[in-house]
Amino acid sequence: MTYILRVAVAACMVTTGVSVWVSPGYGELYELSKNDVMDPKALKSAEVSLFGVKLGDSEAKAMDSLVNEKIPGVKVEQEALFIFLLDQRKPTGPMAGVRIQDGKIDLIFINNRFSYKTRGIFRNVLNSESPDDVRKLLGQEDYGDENVMGAILAYDKQGFVINYLGKDVNVEFSSPR
Fold this sequence. Notes:
three-stranded mixed beta sheet
């Protein structure tokens, strides 16, 4: 019912010329490669998907969506528990991927090589110049560690961790703790 109401309101606003942005609340997926979500409070790892695959999905679904389905500009490699997605233009290392344990996806990751494909707040996070820039975008982390090598910013309640290592920025999505 809530979804229908939101769609009806959005349709009315669009037909009257009002710009609309619908947040991914209420269990809707935030597709990293499509949605322009900018509200850090709306982000939960259980609602994040990578090319249609989300945490808890089966290995078969991951294989269908990431390996068997051709993703434009992406080269796919499998190694042990991981399915790695590489940029075909510069396949120097994975730009995103998933880890599969016990037949289910338990980790989704993206890094700064994926910034050209992602949308919303994580494009800004992946292009951040410092841990403080990440905090300005996402708010204060639940806990973290910062030293001369870089920083780990853990947003455990939302289910993701930012590993900031200078120009290398990684985001790992897992089940919230």
